[in-house]
Structures are given as C-alpha cells and as structure tokens.
Amino acid sequence: MKSLFFISIMMLLSLTTQAADRRIFQTDSSGNRQYDKPSYTITDNGRIYETDSSGNHKYSGQHFRIEGDRILPTDSSGNRLYNLPSRTITNNGQVYETDSSGNRRYDGQHYKLEGDKIIPTDTSGNRQYDRPHFRIQ
C-alpha cells in the first residue's frame, strides 16, 4: 500500500517535467518536510527509485517505471512485477490504483496533483488531511 502511494507521486511528477531528475519528499498536512521519511527520485528516462534522506539510491526499495499514463512496479533491474498493483493518472491530475489488468480499483488510495503538491483524496476527490502529503522539488 505504501509503495502504491509513492507510485502515484512519481507519475504526477513525471507529467510535470521530463527534463531532469526530480525529488519527491513526504510532508505533513501543513507542508513541512518529514526528514525521517524516505524520498523518491524520478529520472529523466521515467525510472523511479527510493532514496534515503541524503539522496542515496536504496537498491533494496521498490522501483517503478513510467509508461504513458501508468506507473508500473518493477524490480531493481526494471522488470515489471505483475503481482503488484499499478497507478493510472487522468488528464485532470487524479491518480488511482489499478490491478495488473488495468482495471480501476475503487478501494485504493487516490491522489491529486495541485501545483508542486501531491494531495491524498478519497474516491470522490475530497482532500484527506490525516494522510501523508508530498512535495515535488
């Protein structure tokens, strides 16, 4: 579940820019960075990987790759993991979980991109203040 949240973040970031590596940091609902939480890096070729607080690549963490409007879970070599759910992003910035066949899962966590913030929402699009937020830098 945790990795699916980060997949959404990575996908949103990839749609905002493809020019250079970008970092995503977890924040509290007020926007303060949570330094004790892992961050993620999106490379310019669409690969996503977990980093520690210093920005070092964590090879043991979950990896992802971006293909079109989907974020797909992969192993550290880039091979797709079909047993894990992926994420899909819509044209209006909504992100939702999909099963391995691409069917929308309504019971999973949803997100919305608002500027440089990734906001958790319920399935109706209402903001959830008690869930982790993210900031793109």
Give a written overview of the molecule.
- By secondary structure, the chain is mainly beta.
- It has one domain (2-136).
- 11% of the residues lie in helices and 35% in strands.
- It is built from 1 helix and 10 strands, in the order αββββββββββ.
- A 10-stranded antiparallel beta barrel has the order 1-2-3-4-5-6-7-8-9-10.
- The longest helix is centred in the first third of the chain and has 15 residues, at 2-16.
- The chain starts with a helix and ends with a strand.
What's the short version?
The protein is mostly beta strands and 137 residues long. The protein has one helix spanning 2-16, and strands spanning 22-27, 39-42, 47-51, 63-67, 70-74, 86-89, 94-98, 110-114, 117-121, 133-136.
How far the N terminus sits from the C terminus, by CA atoms, comes to 23 Å
SS field, number of helical segments: 1
The fraction of residues in strands falls at 35-45%
Largest sheet: 10 strands, antiparallel, barrel
Neighbour order of strands in the largest sheet: 1-2-3-4-5-6-7-8-9-10
Q: Which properties best describe this structure?
A:
137 residues, mainly beta, ten-stranded antiparallel β-barrel, 1 helix
Provide the fold topology.
Layout: H1 2-16, E1 22-27, E2 39-42, E3 47-51, E4 63-67, E5 70-74, E6 86-89, E7 94-98, E8 110-114, E9 117-121, E10 133-136
Antiparallel strand pairs: 1-2, 1-10, 2-3, 3-4, 4-5, 5-6, 6-7, 7-8, 8-9, 9-10
